Amino acid sequence: MPRPGRSCVARLDHHCGWINACVGLHNTRHFLAFLVSNLVLCAYAAAVCCAAISGDLRRRGVLDIYVFDRQLGRLVPVAQRPARVLEYVAVFYGVAAAAGMFNAVCALLLAGFLAYQLSIIAAGTTTYEAAKLRELAAVRRRGGGGADAGVGAGAVTALAGSGAAAAAARA
């Protein structure tokens, strides 16, 4: 029977849907290894797609082709017209180009998430704690709420949720 999220995990960081497990004290290093390996694989896949496309373009001599430039009124190498090269790549290498772009975007997102996780670890906190601290700061900027608004609003928060507490605090 699977455990529900946020249960039985020491120093809970977050529940990860990709590994379908809660990340905490005993598996954070494995989660970081998961992020690093996926980052490396996505970056490698993007590089392979880019190298394969550019190598084939060179082998076929596509970059040595001259096209007529209407503004200049003369022939120019297609390599000086990136839009033309991209058009050619989209038509003849669409799947490989899409796979390369997808993997490049995934690598960038993974790099950002890995950097965030490393900064959270360096700060000695967890993703869950950081989110709660941001929530608390937002509540304080709005002028309190919850326990800060008094016993009545605190009871409303506990029983009905934070939206009801904000309404009670304004009343």
TrEMBL record:
Residue spans crossing the bilayer: 31-53, 90-116
Chain ranges of the Palmitoyltransferase DHHC domain: 6-132
Which EC number(s) does the record attach to this protein? 2.3.1.225
- Is the Zinc keyword given for this protein? no
What does the record give as the reaction this protein catalyses?
Answer: L-cysteinyl-[protein] + hexadecanoyl-CoA = S-hexadecanoyl-L-cysteinyl-[protein] + CoA
Record protein name field:
S-acyltransferase
Cross-referenced InterPro entries? Palmitoyltrfase_DHHC, PFA4/ZDH16/20/ERF2-like
* Pfam families reported for this sequence: DHHC (PF01529)
| This protein's GO CC annotations | endoplasmic reticulum; Golgi apparatus; membrane
Give the subcellular location. Membrane
Molecular-function GO term, any one? protein-cysteine S-palmitoyltransferase activity
Q: Does the keyword Acyltransferase apply?
A: yes
Main subcellular localization, coarse class? membrane
What family does this chain come from, according to its entry? Belongs to the DHHC palmitoyltransferase family. PFA5 subfamily.
What does the domain comment read? Answer: The DHHC domain is required for palmitoyltransferase activity.
What membrane topology is annotated for this entry? Multi-pass membrane protein
Q: Where is the signal peptide?
A: none
Gene Ontology biological-process entries: protein targeting to membrane
Q: Which UniProt keywords apply?
A: Acyltransferase, Membrane, Transferase, Transmembrane, Transmembrane helix
